[in-house]
Amino acid sequence: MIQWGVVKIMTSPISREDLIKHIDCLKKSPLFQVSLASKELFHSNFWAWLFETPKDNSVSAEEYVKVFFQDFSSSRFEVRREFMNMDLVIEAEENDGKKLYVIENKIKSAPRKKQLEDYSEKLAQKENKTGHETKGRLLTSILEPNFTMPEDWSSKRLSTIADKLEPLAKREDSSYRKSLINDYIGFIKSLSSVMELGTQFNGTQKYNFHIRKDGDNKQFLKELLDLRIYDLYVKRGGSMLMAYLQKELQSEDFFKYLHSGSSFNNGKCTCEWYFSDTNNINFRIGIQIEGDQYRRFIMVAGHEQACKEWLETPKNAKKLPSAVEKLVAANPIEGWFVADPRSAYGNKMRGQFCFYKPNFFYQYKILNGETFEKLSDYLIEDLKLAYEMMLEQNHKPKSEES
Length: 402
Fold this sequence. Notes:
Number of strands: 13
Radius of gyration: 25 Å
Oligomer: single chain
Strand order of the largest sheet: 8-9-10-11-13-12
């Protein structure tokens, strides 16, 4: 039994009763448990099963396709899975020839505009080769994408799909099919509700979607971990954070030189922004946010041994490239790193640096529920400093386009 009264998820107060209802629904759903084996493939396969409904069924296959493509009007079609690397493609025979309807399903991972544009290019090439027109391109996801959809694409949320399936499920004569579809409707509604709770795409959004010992939503996140959907929640939160901060950074003079990326590893979302230079030595300087750590980092490519020696005996080693040595100089005011990060940032670092590999080293401060707006302030201030330091060291920042 969940033991909280009112818990703050993101920025919105969520009642214990609502959370129990949605989480218990997921725990009791056999289809939800099966879906965990392959979160995106499961949904695509379930939809394909609906699209291949037998002709003598009380609800037609065409009606199920119309849940996704309202203007669909063919009773002769074939469903193809993972066709041209796209999740579902329906090839329909219509009066004026064969038409394609494409579904790209993004339940587990965050949708990317570039991927949709690439698919449009593939479809255009196929159309030129075969003459088969693509009439529908649909992105399905738990939440609305945080970018403007390409002109030829539309999007649909899981909760909308559930709403459109409900009246069709009621008309199913087969009790077996009806029970399966109703189970599916119930679990995707609950899954959508849990993922949507407290989402606010603005600066007041709190960065608290990772598990902390003293976190105000620790118990809720542990429930998601037990349900094996914590990764979905964190990826969605990381995607929101990345989109918000990218928007805030766009007006800065250094933005065209800024590289960025995000990933999900070991239960944590990692977002990073950095400047790169290949003029003299190949290195990066920037900010990385992972879990509850906000990190200033430097990475020097091709100098692993020099960095290792410098980290082990920084006062004596002479092999670190001089430009990098200046950037890592322990000057709390003018440098990128501080002499005593444990005192300066209140963290648990045992030495002056942490590092993944000898050539990627960083210092960090602990984040504790800062708003997206506050993180934006941190990021802009630090990236301005990093950019200015690069110019002072006669580095030539490499633009993301180059």
